[in-house]
Automatic annotation (TrEMBL):
Residues 161-294 form the Peptidase C39-like domain. This is Peptidase C39-like domain-containing protein. It comes from Porcincola intestinalis. Keywords: Signal. It holds the Pfam family Peptidase_C39_2.
């Protein structure tokens, strides 16, 4: 079901994937967003059984996403199949919105947040709608198309991990940590993807994971989401987390065994600050399949190890514990 935004663009309100990882730095510079009652985190389908306990601390936040209470989604699921038809937003038809954002939102974001959005039409549109006080719905549900991905009985493990966008309109405007989840929730979004893929449980949602992270104190002002969430996101399910060597062989081996791999990247081609993403497989050419919760374009193509090697700072492999 397609919707028309107040700016006149047609898009499918929903998308499972994406992230910008930039608000942590805003907080460290005293540029946190004003908290209003209507901006508080809203739980959609209720608290998931997700959790987080932690080990080291690190920073990563970003994301936003498109969607309303009854709409479809677009996402890349480790292959040529897209979940839904996706939005029709383009760099060209969001050019005026980007100019508006640069003119009217400069005081609400650290400058590189806006600079980093250039070339990413979904994030541009998210910032534009945020500037016009768009609110995420108080509740939502996963579409049938999305459910087909993470409940596909013919697939298992990493092959079922859906692409979820942090800027999805179903939750992207809700508050998480130092700003809207669409800009701060790359880590909770990635953990949601992994939880959905490994368990098929609809209780794993971005709002629920954000709420869990905040309740456990895993949001660190001035830094972002602590890496503690990475190791403790699934306390009520038999999901194991193992830090993985950042080398092609180790990561490819984990993926070929059907286990999704979470990666943290620093400043570079994927982020201006730091970012979490999920690797879901290796294709026949040996290229890596990536779910970037902030960028649909990044998620629609495969990547060589040379593309990724210098970007990855840390990696973790997730698997269902054998009974």
């Amino acid at each position: 079901m397609k919707q028309r935004s107040r700016s006149g663009h047609t898009f499918r309100r929903c998308s499972v994937a994406g992230c910008v990882c930039l608000l942590a730095a805003c907080a460290s510079l005293g540029l946190a967003f004003p908290v209003q009652a209507s901006d508080q985190l809203l739980i959609g389908v209720g608290n998931s059984s997700a959790g987080a306990d932690g080990a080291e601390t690190g920073t990563e936040e970003d994301g936003s996403s498109l969607s309303d209470t009854s709409l479809g989604s677009a996402g890349y699921n480790g292959g040529p199949t897209m979940l839904g038809s996706g939005s029709t937003l383009t760099v060209e038809n969001t050019r005026d919105e980007y100019e508006w954002v640069k003119t009217n939102m400069a005081g609400r974001f650290y400058p590189y947040v806006i600079v980093h959005a250039e070339g990413n039409p979904n994030v541009i549109h998210f910032l534009y709608e945020y500037g016009h006080d768009y609110k995420s719905p108080a509740s939502f549900y996963y579409t049938d198309e999305e459910k087909k991905t993470f409940t596909d009985t013919e697939k298992s493990g990493a092959a079922r991990v859906p692409l979820i966008m942090q800027w999805d309109y179903r939750w992207g405007f809700n508050w998480y940590g130092g700003g809207p989840a669409g800009l701060t929730a790359c880590a909770p979004t990635c953990m949601t993807m992994i939880g959905l893929g490994l368990t098929g449980k609809e209780s794993y949602t971005v709002p629920a994971m954000c709420s869990y992270a905040e309740d456990k104190g895993y949001w660190v002002n001035g830094q972002g989401t602590s890496w503690s969430l990475v190791t403790d996101a699934f306390p009520n399910d038999p999901i194991t987390c193992q830090q993985t060597s950042v080398d092609e062989g180790s990561i490819a081996s984990a993926l070929n065994a059907g286990n999704p791999v979470l990666i943290n990247v620093g400043v570079g081609k994927f982020s201006a600050v730091g970012h979490f993403m999920v690797l879901t497989g290796v294709d026949k050419d040996g290229k890596f399949i990536l779910n970037d919760p902030n960028n649909l374009e990044n998620s629609s193509k495969t990547w060589t190890w040379a593309d990724l090697a210098s970007e990855i700072q840390a990696a973790w492999t997730y698997a269902l514990r054998s009974s």
